[in-house]
Amino acid sequence: MDCPACHHTLSPVEAGSVSVDVCKDGCGGIWFSWMELQRFDEPKDAGDALLGFTRQPGVTVDPGPLHCPQCADKIQLKRHFFSAKRDVTVDECPECGGYWLDPGELGTIRTDFETHEDRRAAADAVFQDTFGGQLAAEHAETEEQLARAHKVANMFRFICPSYYIPGQQQWGAF
Length: 174
Prior knowledge:
By secondary structure, the chain is α+β, with helices and mostly antiparallel strands. The chain is built from two helices and six strands; from the N terminus they run ββββββαα.
């Protein structure tokens, strides 16, 4: 497997019971296959062996879009923030779910949050701050619309009692 950043050959490195691919002779990046990064993203995890890789002198990194080293179709990796703190941007394959981390990014990820629950709580807080008021307003409006629809349906029961059979009309049932 070739490095998506500098195109050197990735080398397998054992960390705990997991084998990840590292660009030892090149840029020092790490490839985590699907769900492997979650085994090393907390300080208590056994990923200390992966923290010391750095870019070798003279190695140039491709500035263009990175492509998945694992997928046969060379899917373009999508760049996004790893957590709500927005300290680290990672490259993720939308096809296989693997992650590419540049040197030093794993160390920053490991110091962001103590546990997965802390990371999830921070993400929930950001989501609530960003969309909470809007979602509450949409919910209230939807509840109001539903109440009006029930009133209209009840009126039809009294206007056309023989015609109204719940769920049998083509024009809709409430």
